[in-house]
Amino acid sequence: DVSNTTDLKALLIKWGWFTISEFGIDADYNAWLLAQHADHDREFQREILEILESLHKTKETNSTNYAYLFDRVAASWNNEKLRTLQRYGTQGMCEGPSNWVPIPMEEPENIDVRRKSVGLEILAENIDRASQYCY
To answer: What is the 8-class DSSP label of residue 80?
Structure first.
């Protein structure tokens, strides 16, 4: 992840974000995936989150990319003392066999409205899918 982050940073200096209109949906997704897993560099993730926040509104990045990165930054997996409430319920952990639980969320009563606004399925479906990977 560290070397991927270093490479992505160098590419971003040269090209800026890999927007869908200029580079295609695969490039946008792959760049997001590298940023999503850069947990060792939360500040970099926050910088990318700012970029994606404006780009998802103009359809230059997939809105689900923005939602997942928002929650990943909120989860702060490398330093839970910095954890804040996630907005879309994409981050969680297994709490036993077939039992995936999202970490705390802001306004949980409105979670499915927010998820729908960025193209995510309802939280119950996400929990069912993610729970399949809990052993």
So the answer is: G
Largest distance between two CA atoms of the chain: 45
- Taking the C-alpha atoms of residue 19 and residue 5, their distance in angstroms, rounded to an integer, is 18
Q: Is 100 helix (H, G, I), strand (E, B) or coil?
A: strand
Main-chain phi, psi angles of 86, to 5 degrees? -80, 160
Q: Which two tokens stand for residue 76?
A: 């702060």
Residue 92: its H or E element: strand 92-94
pLDDT in tens, 76-125: 999 999 999 999 999 999 999 999 999 999 999 999 999 999 999 999 99
Contact 23, 17 (CB under 8 A): no
| Burial grade of 92 (CB within 10 A; 0-12, 13-18, 19 or more) | buried
pTM of the model: 0.95
Give the Cα-Cα-Cα angle 115, 60, 83 (nearest 5 degrees). Answer: 45
